[in-house]
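Try this one yourself first.
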């Protein structure tokens, strides 16, 4: 009889504990962040920035998930955070690791489906396998820690933790096979979810000027995640590059977003235009911004000539079929750097100028 009462009492306590746990979990997921997560000082600063961001009406769990969203992994991770906090070893600032960044990115696509699709079809969606197992590149240049500046900037480890061997002979393989399909340039490389900003609002339709020529341009809040500083820098905070070609200064576009591009598509230490992976326009396109030709997210530049040019150029040729890399990737005339003299000699150019003047 006593055993039966003990079992009954234990079941009642278990039921109360279960109901209490479910109730507490429900409260935690529905209450305001400042009453739950942000009550810990480590998260307070992130919550304050979030409260001023365009995402301020989106619940934390919609981007970061819940303690049960990834089953055992999430529960283990959350318990570790609790133990660290209660153990007197709290971090002043909590940062997402790479796995968390990728998980958040998969939730980005739920609202930003078109942007995600464009990114996936563009040049900024390579995986670890695409970058670190590229035989042609690996034979020409040995992999190093500097690769992580643009590819795998959230990876917590060294180059030896990604690929082996670290040499120019190969054959190369990933240390962790699961990295093969992980993107090396996730959304958070350029987008800071908590960035300060204003949500989009409907224009005043009673005043056409607010939806036409006089409306204020709405620039996306973009930046660059610096692996070494472990923080985002807004595009406006990045320096404007000073470039030269043959000891002559090259005009660089004033578009602040181009400052992000040049963080990875950068020149050598001497700031020589066109060196290393620099793509800053010069020649006939000097001064143009990357965004003048390339679509955001997809990087698509097809049809970009028609944005500025009539079909025929000054020399009477169809701009789409000129001997440049726009028409043929194997052309020696890179569309970023092409100049009139790449195809025409000086005598021809002078005759053309005189001919147009006579008209």
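Now uncover the answer:
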């Amino acid at each position: 009889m006593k055993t039966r009462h003990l079992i009954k009492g234990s079941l009642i306590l278990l039921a109360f504990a279960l109901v209490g746990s479910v109730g507490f979990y429900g409260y935690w997921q529905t209450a305001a962040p400042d009453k739950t997560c942000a009550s810990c000082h480590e998260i307070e600063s992130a919550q304050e920035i979030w409260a001023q961001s365009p995402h301020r009406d989106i619940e934390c769990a919609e981007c970061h998930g819940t303690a049960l969203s990834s089953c055992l992994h999430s529960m283990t991770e959350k318990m570790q955070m609790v133990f660290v906090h209660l153990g007197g070893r709290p971090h002043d600032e909590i940062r997402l690791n790479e796995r968390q960044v990728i998980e958040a990115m998969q939730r980005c696509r739920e609202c930003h489906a078109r942007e995600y699709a464009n990114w996936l079809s563009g040049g900024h969606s390579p995986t670890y396998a695409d970058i670190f197992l590229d035989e042609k590149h690996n034979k020409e240049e040995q992999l190093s820690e500097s690769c992580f500046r643009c590819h795998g900037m959230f990876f917590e480890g060294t180059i030896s933790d990604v690929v082996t061997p670290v040499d120019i002979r190969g054959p190369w393989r990933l240390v962790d096979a699961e990295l093969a399909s992980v993107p090396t340039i996730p959304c958070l490389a350029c987008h800071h979810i908590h960035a300060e900003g204003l949500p989009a609002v409907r224009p005043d339709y009673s005043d056409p000027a607010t939806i036409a020529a006089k409306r204020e341009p709405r620039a996306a809040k973009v930046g660059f995640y610096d692996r070494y500083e472990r923080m985002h820098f807004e595009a406006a905070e990045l320096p404007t590059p000073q470039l030269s070609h043959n000891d002559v200064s090259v005009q660089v576009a004033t578009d602040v977003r181009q400052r992000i591009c040049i963080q990875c598509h950068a020149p050598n230490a001497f700031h020589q235009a066109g060196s290393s992976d620099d793509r800053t326009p010069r020649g006939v396109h000097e001064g143009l911004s990357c965004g003048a030709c390339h679509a955001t997210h997809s990087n698509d530049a097809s049809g970009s000539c028609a944005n500025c040019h009539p079909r025929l150029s000054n020399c009477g040729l169809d701009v789409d079929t000129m001997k440049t890399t726009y028409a043929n990737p194997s052309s020696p005339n890179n569309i970023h750097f092409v100049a009139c003299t790449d195809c025409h000699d000086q005598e021809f150019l002078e005759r053309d100028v005189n001919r147009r003047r006579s008209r």
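Discussion: The longest helix spans residues 2-30. The two ends are 115 Å apart (CA to CA).
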